[in-house]
Q: What sequence folds into this?
């Protein structure tokens, strides 16, 4: 089963748009707090980071951000490499390495986010 390049490109652009929204939310929470005084405390203080680490929504945010960023970045890398016009065999190798590498990185990053959430909520 082959997915068309148009569909992959559409997903690439969509992932970029989602990244803009997620990154905007992150920047808002981390850097505009002083201007808007909406959050209590310094967002980059240890106590604020520890409090955010206890939220399941924060773990979900990081996992979503990781997934969209990996897809967007690795699809862009794949397109750059395929523009070099490699042989059919090399195209298969490129696709396989990027797919396997992306899955491994996603699994590791997801594990890290879940582990951080678990550690933050572990009884002392």
A:
């Amino acid at each position: 089963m082959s997915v068309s390049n148009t569909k992959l490109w559409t997903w690439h652009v969509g992932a970029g748009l989602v990244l803009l929204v997620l990154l905007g939310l992150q920047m808002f929470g981390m850097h505009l707090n002083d201007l808007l005084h909406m959050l209590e405390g310094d967002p980059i203080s240890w106590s604020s980071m520890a409090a955010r680490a206890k939220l399941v929504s924060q773990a979900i945010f990081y996992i979503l951000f990781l997934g969209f960023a990996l897809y967007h970045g690795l699809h862009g890398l794949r397109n750059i490499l395929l523009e070099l016009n490699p042989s059919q065999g090399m195209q298969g190798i490129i696709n396989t390495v990027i797919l396997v590498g992306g899955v491994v990185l996603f699994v590791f990053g997801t594990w890290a986010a879940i582990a951080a959430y678990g550690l933050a909520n572990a009884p002392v």
